Every structure is written in structure tokens, then in C-alpha cells.
Amino acid sequence: MRKFKYLLLFSSILLIFLSACNANKTTEKTPIKIAEVTRSLFYAPQYVAIEQGFFEEEGLDVELQTTWGGDKTMTALLSDGADVALVGSETSIYVYAQDSKDYAINFAQLTQTDGTFLVAKEPKPDFKWDDLKGSTFLGQRKGGMPQMVGEFVLKKHDIDPHADLNLLQNVDFANIPGAFVSGDAEYVQLFEPTASIFEKEGKGHIIASFGEESGHVPYTVFMAKQSFIDDNEGAIKSFTKAVYKAQQWVQEQSAEKIAEVIQPYFEDTELDMLAASIDRYKNQGSFATDPILDEEEWNNLKNIMNEAGELPADVPYAELVNTKFAEEVINN
Questions:
Q1: Which residues cross the membrane (predicted)?
Q2: What domains can you pick out in the chain, each with its CATH number?
Q3: What digits encode the pLDDT tens for the residues 214-223?
Q4: Which segments of the chain does DSSP mark as H helices, in order?
Q5: pLDDT (tens digit, 9 = 90+) per residue, 298-331?
């Protein structure tokens, strides 16, 4: 009788152990390492996807790292330091032009306009683009999307950025705001929330939007190496679905609610300033409402790069863009 009790106890313990093991198997999540090119309010839907648990709902365990620069971000992706990169689509073209054997493929778009604003040191209530001629303009890094879009918009208004301006491009991205405040530049391109913070503190005045001027472009996109996509189609589809959930959530929610959710990523910025900046981006349609990068946007990107003299090759849309997962997610 005693042996039977022990056997029964052992069987119960074994059953509990096996049940726990099976539960762990069913809840095991696929790890995905994301490298973002910078920490930016412009990427609000990505932080929403993390904080609202959309990646987790899709069975993914994401690890986010900020790699601070397009070159570093692509190095992380190509060397397997990251599985997915959030960076400008132009970087995939640069990699392709270097005869890479394992291309970076754009599979889910996050932002669809430029995210910078033209900020002046002095108020310009009657601003005209011609006012820039002869001025000192603190620009962005040569070959990066902010600078290329900036030049594209200036040329659209018959301004030659290299002949009509004193164009400064010798300041690192992270130091541009400080250099504008302490230097002689009269104008600068700034992202949010820095642009709004400067306006609130009287350090500058927002007078135009490069996003509104340049039209839709695949400004920031999730991309992965072709080999990773081939080996992890299920994870890529789940990733895209989580991004789409976040995009729809951002579209439906108020700027104040979005600011509350993503504030942990911007602890040094006041909540009302975050909300004001998000509202500015929402109003100009900067956040993509779905993850599809369409061909018209791709062609606009190449046109902008070509105008800046930075297009190394005329890469066909079908070569570096994969909308299969985005289309499946939206249709289902």
C-alpha cells in the first residue's frame, strides 16, 4: 500500500513537471534583435509596439538597441549583431551598390515623410524660402536622408544649397542642436521634440516642414538580410503584424495617450512637449498607417537621392522591397 502511495505521488509530480515543460514550450518566444538608427520620437509606433505588448502577442521577444548612425546600424545588421534594422531605405541602396551578396530587404515601412523642420534663430512671421539665400545654414550629414531631403526641398524652391547658402555639414548629428544654439547659423534642420523644445525655450522658431514639402518617401523602414527573411518567414510576418497593430493604434489614439505610452523612452522630455510633437507628426501624416512601402514612394526616394548626387545605382523596386508580409497582414 505504501509503495502504491509513493508511486502515485511520483506520478503526480512527474505529470506536473511535464505539464510545466509543455507550458514553457508553448509560451516560448522567438528572440528578435532590433537596431534603431537613433532614438527618435519620430519612431513612436515602434515604441508603442513594444510597450503595448504587440510584439509579445505575436510570439516575439524583441531586444532594442540604438546604434546611432546609418553606417553603424547597417554594420550591426550585416554582421548579425541585429536581426532587423530600423533605418532609412537609402542605406539598403548603398549596400546593394557595394555588390553585397546578402542584401538588406525593406519589408515594413514605419515613417512616410521626412521628420525634420526648418528652424530659424529669429522669428520669421512672413517667411519665404528666398529668405534663406545668403544665410548660414546648419545642415545634416552628407548622404543621409535629412540632408538629401533638405537639398531636394531647397532646389524645389530654386535654391542651390551649395552656391546660395553657407552650408555647414561638419557637425555630428547628436551635436547639431547645441551647435545651432552656440554658433552663427541662422537656420537649421531639427527633428522633434528638439524643434518644439527650442521654440518653447526661445532658442529657435519653427517656420517650415521638410516633410510637408518633400511628399511621401520611405524615410524609416524595418529591413533584414535576405538570408534572415528566408530562414525566418514566420517571425518576419509576426513582426510585421505587430508593427501594423501599432500603426493602427497610433492612428486611432490621441497624441496625449501616445505620449504617455512612449514617455519611458524620452524621460528628459516633458509629457506636454511629447504630445505636441506627436501631434505635429500626426497632422502632417508622418507616421505610416500600414507597413507597405509602395513603388511611388521608392521612386521618390531615388529621385531625392539623385538630386543630391548620392544615388549609386538605379535599383529596381522589386529588388530591395518585399511587401509580401505587409500585404498578408493587412488582408488578413
A1: none
A2: 31-113+217-331 (3.40.190.10), 116-214 (3.40.190.10)
A3: 999 999 999 9
A4: 2-27, 44-51, 54-57, 70-78, 90-97, 145-156, 176-182, 194-201, 210-214, 226-231, 233-252, 255-262, 271-283, 295-307, 317-320, 324-331
A5: 999 999 999 999 999 999 999 999 999 999 999 9
